[in-house]
UniProtKB/TrEMBL annotation:
Family from the record: Belongs to the ammonia transporter channel (TC 1.A.11.2) family.
GO cellular component: plasma membrane
Chief location bin: membrane
Spans annotated as Disordered: 461-484
Topology of this chain in the membrane: Multi-pass membrane protein
Keywords associated with the record: Ammonia transport, Membrane, Transmembrane, Transmembrane helix, Transport
Protein name as annotated: Ammonium transporter
Skewed-composition ranges (Polar residues): 463-484
Length: 484
């Protein structure tokens, strides 16, 4: 059918015969919700959860990554993630900019099963909206992955090194996981389940973040010893955007506004709420006080854990996964990390390894246990997909989930190491000692708040007049520069 014949006139103008306007609207809304998780969600969260002297730099790392991923994605990375096969784990690079491509009906690969007579049993997945919506939706997923990774590196990575790291890691790490699990690669064909990114996004960002943190090195001793959030209320604002934005994160992955989408949204919030309450309960039981930051971490681990199986498990299973995600990552963060010398040496600023890698693996493994056969058939019509608790071949599914996680962990650890070593040849991975001491004022020449305090260099020509009374109020002699 020609492009001209594919469209018909109606009250909305030229609309393709195959276009489902409801599905297309939901897909673009979902993509926008995911985009808002990054900008402004994580920009606000990162800028407020760190020490005041790193607020601008932390927020800017997220903002830069969001912009850089967009250009890389439409220029070459989308094709490497969802294009024609180059290798069993990698697609061919190609631009996603031409109108001829973007107005066509989106199509995604499906696992192919055959009947005994040799005929194909499982059809190609064909969403009823244009490729442009798919490129948009998948781009914001790629962007948030790199931004989550940045959480491990806040407070010491050189911004120049970060500007190189983002396109390199997107190209050589993210696209491999995306193609292998979503784009028709070998893990997808083998039957590893990753509904919405527990492996592609969270396990990969957590492992890569820990690896990059090792190569970049730790923050200064004073920053590691005392690193209070500069605005806890804004942390909650950013966290709230993440939580509600996850409605599109998981709800958009059936690529239609259907029953499975509704199940995914409901399970997402059940698991997140259960995990938050479980984490808070453990904080009260062991530390005698409920922690706001702890509650945010519990919320995050719940959202991450449900992601690999959001539309594939029943409500009771989502609650069980919430209990697991609110307790096991809590234990690895509060107990294992403090007792394991190797982890103590690596400065993972926001504990991304625990909140994303541990919770992501936990979610993938749990999906191998709790994926319900009927819900699996609603998402992807492949015979035999079921969790271990439902018998049949379910035990094999759990094993597949573990092996798939192993590939993601190994690839990201090795390739992230190579990327950091390569960048180090060009530019230092760490900021200078002067930048580490002072923070935003030295790195960007900008400050988050019009307050004098931690890390800034006081300069009366920039921060106020030379009046004796003002200098006395600040306890700093007139004309004297003081480092704090």
């Amino acid at each position: 059918m020609s492009v001209a014949r594919a469209y018909q006139g109606n009250r909305s103008g030229a609309v393709a015969e195959w276009l489902n306007e409801g599905d297309n609207a939901w897909q673009m809304i979902s993509a926008t919700l995911v985009g808002l998780q990054s900008v402004p969600g994580l920009v606000i969260l990162y800028g407020s959860i760190v020490k005041k002297k790193w607020a601008v730099n932390s927020a800017f790392m997220a903002l830069y990554a969001f912009a850089a991923v967009w250009i890389c994605w439409v220029t070459w990375a989308y094709g490497m993630s969802f294009g024609d096969k180059l290798l069993p784990f990698w697609g061919k690079a190609r631009p996603a900019l031409g109108q001829k491509l973007l107005i066509q009906q989106a199509a995604l690969p499906a696992t192919t099963h055959y009947r005994r007579d040799g005929t194909e049993e499982t059809p190609m997945i064909t969403p009823f909206y244009p490729m442009a919506s798919m490129v948009y939706f998948q781009c914001v997923f790629a962007a948030i992955t790199v931004i989550l990774l940045a959480g491990s590196l806040l407070g010491r990575m050189s911004i120049k090194a970060w500007m190189l790291f983002v396109p390199l890691w997107l190209t050589f790490c993210y696209t491999v996981g995306a193609f292998s699990l979503w784009g028709g690669g070998f893990l997808f064909q083998w039957g590893v389940i990753d509904y919405s990114g527990g492996y592609v996004i969270h396990l990969s960002s957590g492992v890569a973040g820990l690896t990059a943190a090792y190569w970049v090195g730790p923050r200064t001793p004073s920053d590691r010893e005392r690193f209070p959030p500069n605005n806890v209320l804004l942390v909650l604002v950013g966290a709230g955007m993440l939580w509600m934005g996850w409605t599109g994160f998981n709800g958009g992955d059936p690529y239609a506004a259907n029953i499975d989408s509704s199940m995914a949204v409901l399970n997402t919030h059940i698991c997140a709420a259960t995990s938050l309450l479980m984490w808070t309960t453990l904080d009260v039981a062991f530390f005698k006080k409920p922690s706001v930051i702890g509650a945010v971490q519990g919320m995050m681990t719940g959202l991450v854990c449900i992601t690999p199986g959001a539309g594939l498990v029943q409500g009771w299973a989502a609650m069980v996964m919430g209990i697991l995600s609110g307790s096991i990552p809590w234990y690895t963060m509060m107990v294992v990390h403090r007792r394991w010398a190797f982890l103590q040496k690596i400065d993972d600023t926001l504990a991304v390894f625990h909140t994303h890698a541990v919770a992501g693996f936990l979610g993938g493994a749990s999906t191998g246990l709790f994926a319900e056969p009927v819900l699996c058939s609603l998402f992807l019509p492949v015979t035999g997909s079921r969790g271990g608790v439902y018998g049949g071949v379910g035990g094999v599914q759990f094993l597949k989930q573990v092996v798939g996680a192993g590939f993601v962990v190994a690839w990201n650890a090795v390739v992230t190491t190579l990327i950091c070593v390569a960048i180090r040849v060009v530019t230092p991975l760490r900021m200078s000692e002067e930048q580490l001491k002072i923070g935003d004022d030295e790195v960007h020449g900008e400050e988050a708040y019009a307050l004098w305090g931690d890390g800034e260099r006081f300069d009366v020509t920039r921060h106020g007049s030379n009046s004796e009374s003002e200098s006395q109020q600040l306890h700093v002699p007139t004309g004297v520069t003081q480092n704090v």
